[in-house]
Amino acid sequence: MKLFFIIANSKYYENNRSMKKIILIIITLYISAYSQDSGANFQDLYAKMKEKYSSMYPKKFEAYIEGKIVQRQIDTIPSKSYTKTKNDIKLRFTFEKGYKPSLILENVDSFYRGMFSVFEGALETVGFYTLVGNADNYNSISKKFTFESIEENKNEYEITLRAKGENVNYSVTYTVDKKTYIIERAEYYNKKSKIYDVSISYEEIKNYTLPKIIKYKSSDGKVNSEIEFVDIKTY
């Protein structure tokens, strides 16, 4: 209260410009303090999520990824690049803790084997392997994203992160189940405009919880594409 009284008392300031500067400093300090407190909360939540994902995944698992978006890409490959028949061409997904997952197209020549590797980064931001993949700790993920906010309701957390560097206009909001700490949805924004969102469903295999279906929806709510993990093997 004393601080605001000083600001309001004109004898301490020569003009409105000085007053605006002081108010701006106060607002900046307030936001800074709030962000640091929220960041600590996010760091704690991140640790719980990482612990959960580390326990629900095996050391390694493999699967094939199927979906119309995958098949459309396969259909563009000329027959001279097949090493077997077209029906034998499959997209193999391999995940191992501590490493970036790989997407390899089987039964095609070397030129097309890595044609899906550009999607590995997109899968990372979905969140289902970020916590136990390349991101070894909180500092690893904080190098890629700036924490913005956490909103909490009865059953979920909504965590908003913003990309750093040249992609600073882009942000993602993760919906995390409060009981399981599993990411259920991810919404992607360019500035304040939603681009698309992703929903993830999981499957219980042995003692593990693994991704089963990922649905991508455009901003109008229609399903643009869907991929499914099949023939999952754990190691």
Describe the protein.
The protein is an alpha+beta fold. It is 30% helix and 37% strand. The protein contains six helices and ten strands; from the N terminus they run H-H-E-H-E-E-H-H-H-E-E-E-E-E-E-E.
Main-sheet strand order equals 3-2-1-10-9-8-7-6-5-4
Task: Extract low-pLDDT stretches.
Answer: 1-14, 19-40
Q: Total number of β-strand segments?
A: 10
Biggest sheet features: 10 strands, antiparallel
Distance between the termini: 62 Å
Task: Indicate the proportion of strand residues.
Answer: 35-45%
Mean pLDDT: 80
Radius of gyration: 23 Å
Query: Structural class, please?
Result: alpha+beta
Q: Which descriptor suits the 3D outline?
A: globular
> How large is the count of helical segments?
6
Subunit organisation of the chains: single chain
The percentage helix is 25-40%
Relevant terms:
6 helices, 235 residues, 10-stranded antiparallel sheet, alpha+beta, disordered N terminus, single chain
